[in-house]
Amino acid sequence: MLAFVLSEDHQYAVRDVLETRPHGLHKRIFILSYTEFLSLPELPVATYLFLDIERLTPPKYAGSIARLDALLEKRPDLRVLNRPDQIVDRMETMSRLHAAGINEFRLVPIDTPASELRFPVFLRGVQDHEGPKSQLLHNADELAAAIAALPSPRGYGITEYIDARNADGLHEKRSYMRIGDRLFPAARDVSLHWVCKGEYTDPAGVPQPEEEIAFLRGEQDMEVMRRAFDVAGIEYGRADYAVVNGHPQIFEINTNPWLEPPENVPAKARRGAQLIIDNYLDGLTALDTKSGIPRPEWVAVPGALTLPARILQRRSLVHKVLRVFGRLHWETRVMGRLRRMRIL
After folding, report:
1. Under CATH, which architecture does the 171-284 domain have?
2. Which residue among 47, 262, 287, 321 is least packed, with the fewest CB closer than 10 Å?
3. Is 0.90 surpassed by the pTM of this model?
């Protein structure tokens, strides 16, 4: 059994795959919000995967650590991926990767003196996944002007630019995903622009489906990527990176990555998208098998909090009904049927 714990507003990142196709994990998965993890008097017996930790408020962060400790007192045999108290923010993650000699570039605080930077640089949010917040900045004056243009410098950092162009002169971004002990390639995107978005609607994108398939079927960069995940302390997530002078350079590691369903992408990209989904489901299946938990079970855990309830929408109402009747592990199958009926 597997239990995902993540913010309610970002559960689409796992639901869009798990609810939309046949797989052997239906009736083997619980999907909980952090509010539920903190407030339910009983919790599932499962291997736990904590996602979206950077989005937690300080009270929920502290509460999640305390509740997890209480759960593990009851069931010390349970495996946990991404313990909240072992996941650090992006600034610290990038600092670790640089200190370990994996990254040659740095992400530094917004108030770092220009004299200490290697230009060009750009601004980016330190907690979001929205990419650069400025153009490339080539000197101290351009940097100062870009910072002054921000609504507030709070929540931003300065990233030293690296030239991620490949042998063809195109900007290439790769991705690897980790699920417990298993790593696999999860994307290869190419762009004419230095901001390689990896979006099919990006006019600067250069489709190379055959090259992506070859990358997805191989193990290129795996040794370095495993070390990067270990240095960051992340056991579930996706790392985006580029290879510069033969060395992977990590842009970020996202603990709640969204995988695009193959049916949503252009026809020429579907084989690659399907391969990524297949590897993802294989990784979850292997993790579930290692859990050794044969059937759904709940355990009473002390320390449940009384938290304000959100207004029930259609999806959350179905979720609550399944939970009340002890069938929450059926949710991915039930939600899938409701999607097909266009009720959700």
Report:
1. 2-Layer Sandwich (3.30)
2. 321
3. yes
